[in-house]
Every structure is written in C-alpha cells, then in structure tokens.
Amino acid sequence: MVDYVSKFPFKKRSIWPHLRATELLESAHLRHCIVGDTVAQVLGSPALVCALFIAVADEQLEDGRRILLDHGYHGKPQNLQCFGHSEARENPGGWPGHTFSSPVSVEPSELDVMLVPASSWYLDLSPTSFAAYTFLHPDTLCRFPTRRFYINALICGIAERFDTPGLNCSITLYLQVQYAYVLGVLPEKFIALLPEEDQLFIELFDSALFARRKVCTEWKKIRDGKQTVDEARKRIPRHDLRLAALKMKRQRHQGIVA
Predict the structure, then answer these.
(1) Where along the chain do the CATH 3.30.460 domains lie?
(2) Beta strand spans in 39-193 (E)
(3) What is the 3-state secondary structure (H, E, C) of 98-111?
(4) What is the CATH architecture assignment of 10-187?
(5) Which run of H or E residues covers position 154?
(6) pLDDT tens, position by position, 84-131
(7) Is the distance from CB of 155 to CB of 204 less than 8 angstroms?
C-alpha cells in the first residue's frame, strides 16, 4: 500500500535519472529501500540530496554491488568527507557499504549512489518486515520505507548511537539531521498515531536538551519491555520546564515592578 507520494512530479526531479539504480535492485528482487535526503525531499522537506542512499538487506549487499557493476555503474571510494571521523572505531572512513558513480549517460553525474547495509540505518529488511513496511512509489520501481517504519528506525539509530564512545559521530549527526527533516513535515495527527514510546521521544528529545542521553536510555528500556512510558516520563528530568517556569516568574515580577 502506498504511504505517500511526491508532491512534485517524481520523474521531473533532478535525481530521477539516478534512481535507475534502485529500479535495477527492484527488478532483481533484492530487499532494499531508499533512505536519506531523497526520502525527506519526497515527503516535502527542502532537503538537498547529497547522495542517493539505498539501504539493502545486509546479506544481499554484495548482490546489489554486482548488479550495479554489471549495469555500468563504477565503484569508487567514498569521497563525502562530511561522513568521515578519523578517531572513530566504527567506520572511520564514513558509511559502510559500496559507493558508485552513475553511468556516463546520467547527468548530473556528480551525485554518488551509495549502497549501505540496512542495519546501519537500523532498518529490519527481513522478508516479513520488507513486505509490510516498504512500498513502490506509483508509476515507478522506486521503493521507499513507510513513514512509521522510517521514523522509528531513525529514532532507534539516534537512541542507540547518541553520545556512545567510539562510534562515527558524523554518521550519528546525519541520522539526527534526517530525523529533523522528516519530523518537520510529518502532520501532528500522524505523530499522534505512533507508538507511545516514539511519541515520548519526539516530545522530549528536542525540548529536554540537557536530558537527551536520558531520553535515549529510557526509550530503549521501553522498547525492550523493561518499563512503561509513564515510568520513563517520571525518570526524565525536565530542566526545560523549570527554566520556563523561572522565566515566566521573572517576567511577571518585571511586569509588577514596571
């Protein structure tokens, strides 16, 4: 079932020629979906596409690499320096997986196509999950994740990685940016239908700034069935509410003095 469609004619987008890569994977019946800036843009965000990210089921990643090579894509080193982090123990050079330049006939040819393992995007692309939570954009063979599936994966990625030593913080930051892009275009009525733990994360991650690590920790406990949402809410310090109360009190005092 189609979960969303591009508001701008999909095949008129500048990225359209590059999406041939995902159509090749679809034709080969590989479990995959588009992720990253392209998803945010299709959802209505003004995000610029820095690369075409395609998450592929981990065990099918090498099959995906061979398919693109067989169809004229050229393997290349990952040259997006913004994803590198030399001090990281995990993927210091950037995203795991394979990077390609498009065939010569595709313009603009500067946009890289990146096949990354689904696990690096915290997506479960097992056969059952793949069938339930991904879909083809109308009139194309371009496969996207459903919004609920995708926002949950982004939350999971942030919660697992936030402030964790040794991880590539550039990758973590990119996931946070994608989370912000997507959250910025999701309707409130849609967010209200998300699982309670995801609603709690969305409510507090950006408001309880001094307790972000605690928000991530408590979200994981809820996910793992170790506590309820109400219990987690009591454990998360709300310095933001205290500051707001102090600010209001000060404003009232100034009003009285004036």
Answers:
(1) 10-187
(2) 51-56, 74-76, 98-101, 112-117, 134-136, 143-145
(3) EEEECCCCCCCCCC
(4) 2-Layer Sandwich (3.30)
(5) helix 147-161
(6) 777 778 888 889 999 998 886 666 557 899 999 999 999 999 999 999
(7) no
